[in-house]
Design brief:
Two copies of one chain form a homodimer. In chain A, 60% of the residues lie in helices and 12% in strands. Chain A has helices spanning 17-26, 30-43, 46-57, 62-69, 73-85, 105-119, and strands spanning 60-61, 89-94, 97-102. In chain A, strands 1-3-2 form a three-stranded antiparallel sheet. In chain A, a hairpin with a 2-residue loop joins strand 2 and strand 3. The longest helix of chain A has 15 residues, at 105-119. Chains A and B meet through helix 1, helix 2, helix 3, strand 1 and helix 4 of A and helix 1, helix 2, helix 3, strand 1 and helix 4 of B. Chain A binds a DNA duplex through helix 5.
Amino acid sequence: MIDKNQTERCDVCEVHQDIVQAVQTQLPDEEQLYDLAELYKVFGDSTRIKILYVLFESEMCVCDIAQLLNMSQSAISHQLRVLKQSRLVKFRREGKTVFYSLNDRHVEQIINQGMEHITE
Amino acid sequence: MIDKNQTERCDVCEVHQDIVQAVQTQLPDEEQLYDLAELYKVFGDSTRIKILYVLFESEMCVCDIAQLLNMSQSAISHQLRVLKQSRLVKFRREGKTVFYSLNDRHVEQIINQGMEHITE
DNA sequence: TGAACATATGAACAATAACTCATATGAAAG
DNA sequence: CTTTCATATGAGTTATTGTTCATATGTTCA
């Protein structure tokens, strides 16, 4: 009513006010939805998807992944950092080399479900 | 060997050459992996996640969603366009208003799986 | 201790994308 | 046909992010 810019917010379309309120109570809290988006953001890059796919098959060192994807060691290392922070991959050190692997089977499930949507 | 920048590509770490080659054959093709990343990119924004979550409960018009998320009609419309293009939502027209809803149950499955990872 | 190698990381740059603003489209009602 | 209302869209701006480049860290071996 006292809204300055009427184009911004439709005040008249309050026909479905009941629906709006019902849904509002069921919505998870802001922070959780934000975290969920952040998780998917990690999957939303083809380099990282490739890294994850590669790790389906076998644990692997940074250098091998870089060679496999034909990318620089630095680029891969940066992305592994992101994957590590999201708890999607874990690593173990063996001398000079660091082996990365998937953190759990969740990752594979999530990706497979995405693949289903793509290939249907 | 004749590689200009030796820092870029590690030529010595060919210990795991067998692993690299084995994995290479199992990797889906470039385009498919790209599409998969594109799909997750769509989920990777909190506004879109919110929209999808809202549509879990009920079909809804643009105006209602905007009001529910306290965002401009334009912003919501832009994001619905992205969701439409990814075949995550569908819509039906009823007079002046357009009702959006989830395209299939896949969307809910994907999001729920992500939630599991977050809340574990 | 120092050289060699695998990996990590900070800064800079370029590309992408979300939102705003202004306006266009499209449907219903007068 | 014109007005009104819901939605869509193009351009511009700002924020985010993936990669490169240069360099640091950390481990092994001589």
